[in-house]
Specification:
Elements: H1 4-17, E1 21-22, H2 37-40, E2 49-58, E3 74-83, H3 89-99, E4 109-118, E5 123-132, E6 135-146, E7 149-150, E8 156-161, H4 162-170, E9 179-181, E10 184-185, H5 186-204, H6 207-226, H7 230-249, H8 255-282, E11 310-318, H9 323-342, E12 351-356, E13 359-367, E14 374-382, H10 383-386, H11 395-404, E15 412-416, E16 419-428, H12 433-446, E17 467-474, E18 477-478, E19 482-483, E20 486-489, E21 491-493, E22 502-504, H13 511-517, H14 524-540, H15 552-559, E23 565-571, H16 581-592, E24 595-598, E25 604-613, H17 618-644, H18 648-653, E26 659-661, E27 665-666, H19 667-682, H20 689-700, H21 709-713, H22 720-728, H23 733-741, H24 756-775, H25 789-802, H26 811-820, H27 828-848, H28 853-859, H29 866-879, H30 883-898, H31 915-931, H32 937-942, H33 944-957, H34 965-983
Parallel strand pairs: 1-2, 17-20
Antiparallel strand pairs: 2-3, 3-8, 4-5, 5-6, 6-7, 6-8, 9-10, 11-13, 11-17, 12-13, 14-16, 15-16, 17-18, 19-20, 21-22, 23-25, 24-25, 26-27
Length: 992
């Protein structure tokens, strides 16, 4: 069994063999190996750089006095930087695991999406967490930016979590039990320091001293920048960062201080990075300059094209895509292929595209051997200018003939528009299919885009993760083309632990079956079936089941995390069932992507389903995943116990330290606004004494659980833990329910608040979010919606639709009341934008539910009260197609069409000169009385018979546009009065 010392030495030796310099840890506290100058500074500029080193990483906020088995204030990372990224970093990394004695064929090793960012350093990158049987052991990142500067070339960072790896290798459940060296445990070496530094960071660090140190370090960093000394300047930036972390662990950083400190450190880091790059340039880049990967050169094709129709297999090979991008990429490639092929004359059959995390596979059936021949006509000058009056060719005709390589006598004639021209018509032979495909396939690669894109060492390519290979076969012939540094060929990559990870493909025919023979299930629908059937079978074997409806979204994610799903049944200690079920299932789903197993009554069983990728030693994988879940549950139990020992008011007070948005204040500020807004909304609705009492108590505790350790770790439990902790602290059940209700609905299809008090808090929460963020212009763009405003908008609509007793609450009144309580001005334009944003979500929801678009739009202008809009929509659905309503629509449309836009709804009955005018006036007044203060479509329709008769009689007997201006204005005013009442119930123009 390797000790930790052995493992560090092995990694040193392995990466030294790969050309890495073995560096030393930073001689000052850093929170991660990334902060070491050997990474942060060296990834800047064009110089190549390969380095590896261990890094004790100090994170005061993770201090747990040495009691938590998995959390340490100082843990050991092993850092590797490869610059430029070499194109095979994943394979090199897997080689390091083999060097450590890890059998990658027996274990389930996976690259799971991780988008890394460090706001304080202005740094970010895309990559993965690397999982070993469910345990995150490494972060793997392609750096895109550091110090706010785009990096070129791109470096790859590999950061091993040494304690986690050693706990897995040595099968121990507490970091103290790791064998560090022969006969010496980790706890014996570091246990005392872990306890004492935890005491210091959490209890004893002097806040005033730390604030003073932060200022001193920041000033010294700036002084060194002014002296053009980037290395000492960066040293003081690191000291700033650590001091800030100490203050944060002590709970001594306010919202404003946090924002200012981050901005200050980010600015310093940016200036350091820029100065370092400039200094290296002044020195002439002593380590040289890393050139971009050379563009690939297509090999000349000597193979003849297929003689007849053949299948095209086109595969884009990618390092593991995020699950959300798998299906999206397949659709993008299918659309691109269909569009490009449609622009050719190449006949083909069905286009189908499937995808896995590592490949997008397009199959086009029955591709013709070549394009169809076609006639091409070249237009020349007009006949009138091509020949003179005697019919002799002019210079224009002779010149055109020469340019086309024909005699004048060979010119034809054709009419274009109103004129006859001379033309040359030729038969053009169709190009061979290989030539056509080689021209159009590259665009399907270069045009790929994702929600978040990255660069790597392939000029001209940008995508969610690096594209590493291209397969393009027409029948058994290679389609010859290149994209950046990639050449299309006949090889594909299969599982990395296969005896031959790279294999040749003989033909496009039967390619899905070829992949299946190598353990790749290319079709997502088939992968999903294997997940669902396998999970169901394993759960049934222990008397349980998996709720595939409830966990449909999780199943979809799992489906696109693997290429060959292998469900594995695992178990955990039934003692953990004493924790709230929501904690257990959240850990399974969010952290581990496990499927919970339930009994017949829906209760949680002490089992779970993990889904491995490809063949593995299921006993080894099961044991590893069980150990991971045990550690996760130990963490959860630690947080649970700590939170239960903490007063609710103490958790609530921590909201002052949590930033919501710099301009909108802390979470405490937001919670206060929610409480005040909920009380205001309650004044407009009928609420019983019990609900009013629950609302008052819950408002005082709004969002308090965001200050708990559990929700800090598992944010998805917000509201759930509020209810649990509040009731256990002695609050009434109704208060706990209201605190949970405040967070509902959390997603599409989620349940709605069960109580009036909870519904008001939920509305206040969402109105505050919408008004505040629209006030500062932080609105969703494209697929980016970091604050969940789309979800909040739908939540408002669903809650208002579900509660008739809230009929007096409207979108306008709720948003206005929220805007008045914001710490920043909210313009009328921003408020209207927020209202329209909610209405668009409401419109789309109604359409998605199967409502006809015209009917939805007819009720939407009056959807400030969503419940009234839904009620009107139901009434409209029952009225349409009835003869009486059809006549009513026609009558209203007659009125609408004749009215000028500026017609005022005012008139004088004394100016009426016909009986028809009096009859319409009587009908209008009767309608006004029937509608009252609450205009409704059903009441309007009930008056339709008399109203339609009066309108039609008016138009038949009255000259509306009379010559007398007073009479004309009076008659239009009467019609406008009718129209203004009609507009209160429906947008009639949508029904034309």
């Amino acid at each position: 069994m390797p000790t930790m010392q052995d493992t560090l030495l092995t990694l040193n030796a392995y990466w030294a063999e790969q050309g890495c310099l073995i560096a030393q840890p930073m001689n000052s506290e850093v929170g991660a190996g990334t902060l070491n100058p050997a990474t942060f500074l060296r990834v800047q500029g064009p110089e190549p750089w390969r380095v590896a080193y261990p890094e004790p990483s100090v994170r005061p906020d993770d201090a747990r006095y040495g009691e938590n088995p998995n959390r340490l204030q100082t843990h050991t990372q092993y850092q590797v930087i490869l610059k430029p990224e070499p194109g095979n970093a994943q394979e090199l990394y897997l080689g390091s695991l083999r060097a450590l004695g890890i059998d990658i064929a027996a274990h389930d090793i996976r690259f799971v999406e991780d988008n890394w960012a460090s706001p304080a350093l202005g740094a970010w990158g895309l990559g993965w967490e690397v999982w070993l049987d469910g345990l995150e052991i490494t972060q793997f990142t392609y750096f895109q930016q550091a110090g706010g500067i785009a990096l070129d070339p791109v470096s790859v960072e590999i950061t091993y979590g040494m304690e986690r790896i050693l706990m897995a290798l040595q099968n121990v459940s507490h970091f103290k039990d790791i064998s560090y060296a022969p006969g010496v445990s980790y706890g014996e070496i570091f246990g005392q320091a872990e306890y004492e530094m935890s005491r210091y960071y959490l209890d004893d660090a002097d806040v005033r001293t730390q604030h003073a140190l932060f200022e001193t370090y920041a000033e010294e960093a700036r002084r060194m920048l002014d002296a053009r000394l980037p290395v000492p300047a960066y040293t003081y930036v690191l000291k700033c960062s650590h001091t800030f972390n100490v203050l944060d662990a002590r709970g001594a950083i306010s919202t404003t201080e946090r924002a200012r400190a981050f901005a200050r450190m980010r600015a310093l880091a940016h200036d350091v990075a820029g100065l370092w790059a400039a200094r290296r340039a002044e020195l002439g880049h002593p380590l040289g300059s890393a050139g971009a990967a050379p563009a690939a050169q297509p090999a000349p094709s000597t193979e003849p094209a297929p003689a007849g129709p053949a299948t095209l297999a086109f595969e884009i090979g990618v390092e593991e895509m995020p699950p959300a991008e798998v299906g999206r990429s397949a659709r993008a490639v299918e659309e691109a292929l269909a569009e490009k092929l449609a622009g050719t004359r190449l006949r083909h059959g069905t286009i189908s595209v499937v995808a896995t995390p590592r490949r997008v596979v397009a199959l086009v059936e029955d591709v013709a051997a070549q394009e169809e021949d076609h006639l091409r006509t070249v237009r020349g000058p007009r006949v009138s200018g091509a020949f003179d009056a005697q019919g002799n060719a002019t210079e224009a005709a002779r010149g055109f003939a020469r340019s086309q390589g024909v005699e004048v006598a060979d010119l034809d004639r054709a009419v274009f528009g109103a004129h006859e021209h001379v033309v040359v018509t030729r038969r053009v032979s169709g190009r061979p299919a290989l030539e056509v495909l080689a021209e159009i396939l590259p665009a399907s690669v270069t045009g790929l885009r994702a929600e978040k894109n990255m660069r790597w060492n392939a000029p001209g390519l940008v995508f969610t993760r690096p594209i590493r290979w291209l397969l393009a076969l027409l029948g058994d012939r290679i389609v010859p083309f290149t994209v950046s540094s990639l050449s299309a060929g006949r090889t594909t990559q299969v599982h990395r632990d296969a005896p031959s990870p790279t294999v040749e493909v003989p033909s496009a025919e039967g390619y899905p079956a070829f992949l299946a023979d190598h353990g790749i299930v290319a079709d997502a629908a088939e992968r999903r079936r294997l997940v669902e059937e396998g999970a169901g079978r394993l759960a049934a074997g222990i008397g349980g089941h998996v709720d595939l409806t409830k966990y449909s979204g999780l199943v979809a994610e799992i489906t696109d995390l693997v290429e060959q799903p292998v469900p594995v049944l695992g178990s955990f200690d039934p003692e953990y069932l004493q924790l709230p079920e929501a904690i257990l299932t959240t850990v399974m789903r969010k952290h581990q992507r496990y499927l919970p197993v339930q009994d017949a009554e829906g209760g949680l069983l002490p089992h779970f389903i993990a889904v491995a990728n490809g063949n593995c030693d299921e006993d080894v994988v099961r044991a590893g995943n069980e150990a991971v879940l045990r550690a996760r549950y130990e963490d959860a139990a630690f947080f649970w116990r700590a939170d239960l020992a903490t007063a609710l008011t103490e958790m609530r007070d921590k909201l002052d330290l949590l930033t919501f948005e710099e301009r909108l204040g802390s979470m405490a500020d937001r919670a206060g606004r929610i409480a005040a807004l909920a009380a205001h909304l309650a004044e407009s609705v009928e609420l019983g004494p019990a609900d009013r009492h629950a609302l008052d108590r819950a408002s005082r505790l709004a969002k308090f659980d965001l200050g708990s350790q559990m929700v800090t770790e598992l944010s998805g439990l917000a509201g759930v833990m509020a209810a649990e902790y509040a009731v256990r602290a002695g609050e009434e059940d109704a208060v706990g329910t209201a605190l949970l209700d405040m967070e509902l609905p959390r997603f599409t299809g989620d349940r709605l608040p069960a109580t009036g008090a909870g519904a008001l808090l939920a509305l206040a929460d969402r109105f505050d979010l919408l008004a505040g963020l629209f006030a500062i212009g932080s609105v969703p763009t494209g697929s980016s919606d970091p604050y969940g405003l789309r979800r909040s908008a739908l939540g408002v609509v669903r809650i208002l639709c579900s509660r008739r007793e809230f009929a007096s609450l409207t979108l306008e009144s709720g948003l206005l009341a929220a805007a008045e309580r914001q710490p920043v001005p909210c313009s009328k334009e921003a408020l209207e934008d927020a209202r329209q944003f909610v209405l668009r979500r409401f419109e789309q929801q109604l359409i998605d539910n199967g409502r006809p678009i015209a009917q939805v739009r007819a009720v939407l202008p009056h959807a400030g009260s969503p419940s009234q809009a839904e009620r009107t929509l139901t009434q409209l659905d029952s009225l349409l197609e009835t003869p009486a309503f059809t006549a009513l629509v026609a009558a209203v449309q007659r009125v609408r069409r004749i009215l000028p836009k500026d017609a005022a709804p005012s008139f004088d009955p004394a100016l009426f000169t016909t009986a028809a005018e009096h009859e319409l006036h009587t009908a209008v007044e009767k309608l006004r009385t029937a509608l009252g203060d609450a205009p409704r479509l059903d009441r309007f329709a009930a008056e339709s018979a008399g109203l339609v008769t009066a309108v039609n009689g008016f138009f038949d007997q009255v000259m509306v546009m009379a010559e007398d201006p007073a009479q004309r204005t009076n008659r239009l005013g009467l019609l406008a009065a009718l129209h203004s009442q009609a507009e209160q119930v429906l947008a009639w123009d949508e029904l034309t």
